[in-house]
Amino acid sequence: MAKTTKILIAGFGGQGVLFTGKALAYTGLKVGMEVSWLPSYGPEMRGGTANCSVTLSDTPIGSPIVDKPDVLIAMNLPSLEKFYNETEKDGYVIFDSSLIVKNDVRDDVVTVGIPATKLASDNGLDGLANMIILGKVIKETNVLTLEQVKNSLAQMVPAKKAELLEKNVKAIELGYNY
Amino acid sequence: MVVFEKTKGLTDNQLHYCPGCTHGVIHRLVAETLEELGVTGKTIGIASVGCSVFSYNYFNCDMIQAAHGRAPAVATGAKRANPDNVVFTYQGDGDLAAIGTAETVHSAARGENITVIFVNNAIYGMTGGQMAPTTLPNQVTQTSPYGRDVTVVGYPVKVCEMLSQIDGATYLERVAVNNVKNIRKAKQAIKKAFQNQIEGKGFSLVEVLSTCPTNWGLTPKAALKWLDENMETYYPLGVYKDKYKEEK
Amino acid sequence: MAEKVLMKGNEALAEAAIMAGCKYYFGYPITPQTEVAAYMAKRMPKIGGTFLQAESEVAAINMVLGVAACGKRVMTSSSSPGISLKSEGISYLAGCELPALIVNVQRGGPGLGGIQPSQSDYFQALKGGGHGDYKLIVLAPASIQEMVDLTFKGFDLADKYRMPAMILADGTMGQMMEPVSLELGEVKEYAKPWATTGKATHEGRNIINSLSLSPAQLEEWNINRYERYKIVERDEVMYEEFMMDDAETCVVAFGITSRVAKNAIMEARKRGMKVGMIRPITLWPFPKDALKKAASKVKNFLTVELNMGQMVDDVKLAIDCSKPVYFYGRTGGVIMTPDEVLNKLNEIEKGEAKQW
């Protein structure tokens, strides 16, 4: 049976929305999946809301635009409000509970909050809340394995920035084990 | 005994210019220069739009006919593609100083290693005598029938003066072809503008004050006099910039 | 097979151009194609090529003309409003019979329009844009791999037929990342004895020109050019057929909308609806014969576009209006969802849809 996972990552510009998507797409490529990565673009990239569609599939991908995600990663409240009800039945919604309070949850999707921004600042990982959430996404959805993502990150981050890689990996593990 | 021979820098095609028009003289000066410098075989000329639109029929070298005002951009492409070729544009005042102002200014600013021959006769000749960006104040043309009113349509553009403010420009000189003495000076200026390019010195432009007896409504002889009395006072002859001389 | 790399469409296209032997790029910044210029600015100096940010789109296309006249591979890229400015130069390229590649990463219009993806320059690319009797080879990529492949192909076709070619992409194709293979094969070299390289290098004088004041001569030039266009129409048509074997409704879509339509078609198939698609890869030459052949089998056509229906007439002409042609489009930068297309297919099936 063909399997396609449509992922939508949304938040403010600067929260690492596009990089999170790139990490997913790049890992998908490395493990032999069909992938597409499509950002929202334009002035909103610079401070406004940003979102990024990632599709991972074992068959050729049709539309690269994710309007009804199987997995929604919401990094701010406007994004969660905008896309929560669009999420497919039996899908996953992972959000940053340091920034978002969510009371009324759907019973047909798995809704998981993780205080990523707080965890990041408590652990000296400022700016890496996105990677913490990514860790949680992998744990919940099994769309990719932790090992696969860690391996591809090592290829994405330039060798001279080894310290940055280390922090990214630490953040992913933190989210994964939360 | 041969006392005079036509330059090999020109083809045998008959010029289409009106009797008394000094485009022919300027063509010859450019063509002689190409021949004397021994570069006709590696020269690419860019023809513009205006009376000189057919110059590709006359210069005895490879030619590209450019859109109105775009000759310096076409020359930029040609020179960048073939840096060892000699590339020049031959443009009138409407082409260079109205519709092509941006291309002129920016090719100068980039210091493109090209030669620009700018023929200023203060009128649009090809279309039958309309006001040019260089038409003098109070000068009567088909589209300034009561004389150029500077309070309504503004002032003429002084190209050499304007470009002299641009760091990228190497050599700017204004000459005229209304008498033998001026023609000799014009030849020197044109030759220098090509030599600069061959030596890799950058953007050179020679503005040549020229006549248009037909559209000025004057005899060829009276037109030469009119140029002397009216144009030269508004557009003083001389060197406006010579980067390499300054640095000596 | 070479390992695939993840690349953004604009950058993949730029790299493909370099691999096709293009060493000259002239452009001007405009969203959503600026990455092409940025990529060229980085790469060209390293391969001994020329990147120049021109003072305007108008200047950029004329710089392209200068290089093309000298016989070298050259390109420019822009987005819709910038292509309007280049249209004069494109007409001159066509008139001078010069090969060059022009890339349009389309955004919404008219006027300054928006910056989101659009296909509303279909008419501009296919029906003129510039003045005079001329055609462009117009290639419409629907994936990042095609951004690469068609760029490579575009240079080849332009040289082969001595005419400008255009990549008609859109904002999603420019901005999206997908895995691509950059194994593109050999660059075919074409002799260009007509190029202005100095008359010492060839017989006689070479003149690159589109002007003739003799109506008879200009007519002859145009007729000769259209003879060449006939060969392009005969030999260079490219299209993809998707689930057409038993289709009763044939979707016609290109670029990003063909991707959206594919999702809708798969969903329709799940519901037992017999839908397929013909996706033009070359918009000119247009896959007329494939559509005509399909018309003998299907009941309906549906064109899906990011504009107000600019391709509909071409489909109708291709099939001699022998079957109903319906249209679904969004414009201004809005992209339709697969559900919207599915709804239209449902309407058609139930006989509720209005013909275009």
Element string of chain C (H = helix, E = strand): EHEHEHEHEHEHEHEEHEEHEEHEHEH
What portion of residues of chain C belong to β-strands?
15-25%
Q: H/E element string of chain A?
A: EHEEEHEEHHHH
What fraction of residues of chain A sit in β-strands? 15-25%
Number of helices of chain A: 6
Helix content of chain C: 40-55%
What is the radius of gyration of chain C? 21 Å
Number of domains of chain C: 2
DSSP, total strands of chain A: 6
Average pLDDT number of chain C: 97
What is the CATH domain class of chain A?
Alpha Beta
Q: Over the alpha carbons, how many angstroms does the gyration radius of chain A reach?
A: 15 Å
State the fourth-level CATH superfamily of the largest domain in chain C. Thiamin diphosphate (ThDP)-binding fold, Pyr/PP domains
Helix content of chain A: 25-40%
Largest sheet of chain C: 7 strands, mixed
- Overall shape of chain A: it is globular
Structural class of chain A: alpha/beta
Strand arrangement across the biggest beta sheet of chain C: 3-2-4-5-7-6-13
Sheet having the most strands of chain A:
6 strands, mixed
Per the CATH scheme, the topology name of chain A is Pyruvate-ferredoxin Oxidoreductase, domain 3
How many separate domains of chain A? 1
Protein architecture, described:
The complex is a heterotrimer of chains A (178), B (248) and C (356). With 178 residues, chain A is of the alpha/beta class. Chain A has one domain (4-176): Pyruvate-ferredoxin oxidoreductase, PFOR, domain III (Pyruvate-ferredoxin Oxidoreductase, domain 3), CATH 3.40.920.10. Chain A is built from 6 helices and 6 strands, in the order E-H-E-E-E-H-E-E-H-H-H-H. Chain A has a 6-stranded mixed sheet with strand order 2-3-1-4-5-6, sandwiched between helices. In chain A, helix 2 (77-83) links the parallel strand 4 (71-74) and strand 5 (92-96). The N and C termini of chain A lie far apart (32 Å). The relative contact order of chain A is 0.17. Chain B has 248 residues and is an alpha/beta fold. Chain B has one domain (23-246): Rossmann fold, CATH 3.40.50.970. Helices cover 37% and strands 17% of the residues of chain B. Chain B has 10 helices and 7 strands. In chain B, strands 2-1-3-4-6-5-7 form a 7-stranded mixed sheet, with helices on both faces. In chain B, helix 1 crosses helix 7 (180-198) and helix 3 (93-99) crosses helix 4 (101-109). With 356 residues, chain C is α/β, with parallel strands linked by helices. Helices cover 40% and strands 19% of the residues of chain C. Chain C has helices at residues 9-19, 34-43, 57-69, 80-96, 122-126, 144-161, 171-175, 215-235, 256-270, 288-295, 312-318, 338-350; strands spanning 5-8, 24-27, 50-53, 74-78, 100-106, 137-139, 164-170, 177-180, 207-208, 239-242, 249-252, 275-280, 282-284, 300-305, 325-329. Chains in contact: A-C, B-C. The interface between B and C is large, with 36 and 39 residues.
